[in-house]
Amino acid sequence: MNRQHSTSWLFVGALFVLCGTLGFLQYRWIGEVSVAARERLRAALQANLEQLSQDFNSEIANTCRLLLPPGARDAETAEREMEIRYEQWKSRPALRQIVEQVGLATPHDGAPTLRILNWETGRFEDRAWPEKWQGIASRIEARTGGAPGPPEMPHGEPDLLLQSPIFPAQRPFPPMGRRELAWVIFDLDLPHIRSVILPETVERHLGSGGDLAYEVAVVSRMDPSSPPIYLSDPQAINTPRNADASIGLLDVRLEGGGRGGRGGRGRGGMDPRDRGFDGGRWQMFVRHRAGSLEAVVAQARWRNLAVTGGVLLLLVLTLTALVRFTRNAQRLAKLQMDFVAGVSHELRTPLTALYTAGHNLRGRVAHQPAQVERYGEMIQQESGRLKDLVEQVLRFASAGAGRIIQEPAPVAIGRVIEDSIEASRTMLQSSHCEVETHIAPDLPTVMGDSLALQHALQNLVTNAVKYGAGDQHWVGVTAANVNGARPEVEIRVADRGPGVPAEEQDRIFDAFYRGRRASAEQIHGAGLGLNLVKKIVEAHGGTIRLKSAPGAGAEFIVRIPAAPAGGVA
What we know:
Strand content: 15-25%
């Protein structure tokens, strides 16, 4: 048995080591998978941002192109064509929502003149150059003055000013260096872009079911210190500092727009071959709401590790429980074998005595009255032992089938105690044991089976006689009323014997269990009595416990709930 015990625990230890190794390998593999997942999320986010930038630029560019003339012989023709195109497209709400003002700059005596489109009349009117357009005016003037190209956009020029040159209607496209006829200037409407276009575009590409998983900030590249142009979350002011990804916005090229423009332009006015998505007047920064993509991957990694650890722990617990259940089954099997051996021995003794008595009574002993009486007493005693053993086995089988008590009825505990002591009278007399009883006169009745309760109390009394009567040959039985949360009847069966060892008290109510003293002194019994007592008491809704100390005897305390107001059995 010890060898099997050691082997079982060695097996469990090996499983622990194996599970630990698997957990370590799983940790490493999940880490590698997490790195790949992070890169995949980053690549997917960057791809979404590129599509977002392309769609945003395309919407701005396509709206502006509604007014661009496809080609003209001179500036006057270009102006008339733009007025015609405005009449054609003015019913589109996006035109006046995205574009706040449209200007047409024409070179005149080395200085460009400006005409602004009147949204109400649909005609261009002469206007003075607005202060915020002075940078564009200077560059156009430099270009018409023969400079090789426009200078760089001066710092501080508004981001929302787009310009597109108008070339003469000529095929093929005029060679580089040819002067433009005029320039179309678009002043974009920032409030509408900030409140409508940007949120809709961000939601379309980064949202899911109305929930935006990222914090988005758009800032100006021309003036990074200025307040953000757009914030998806007003609290996300630090998004540009630790962003997961970024993309350029407002990289809109309108040169040669319309059907008369260059071929090969993609959506948003950019050649797909030239798109690096790192240009634009604005820069969009994106950060996951969890803090970063690294934090998202780390959370997923720990969740996976927690699930894996839980599975491994469940496996270890299952195997440990299996080993324990197996050991318990082995111990129960051993107890059952001991029970079979004990019952066989218990049956053999009375059967042998009965056989011997019957054989002797057939001979000369039959004519001797004294011997006949002695053999008759032995037959009665041994047949009683045999009857008790058979009845105990049958009750144990009935308890296993759930038939511990029959139809419950009001029972008087005082009468049950008297009947139990009377049924044990033969054993008490042969053991010269004194029984002292104290039964309270006002005991309430209990609902139960009088025969089952009698059997339980008789078992406690006979156990006290067999194991605990000691040299004093005394057994005490008391019954009293306990008033508490619910009325109960308390029955105590005590003896003054050697008591029950502390290490055996937890198992004394187990089936087939017999203590060392019972085995050593070969005290008759099958190890079923106290187990049946406990089952009978619990079937009546009560409890039983043992109070014992070495050399101080043993006392079994039974408590059974009192019956509601009713008659006495």
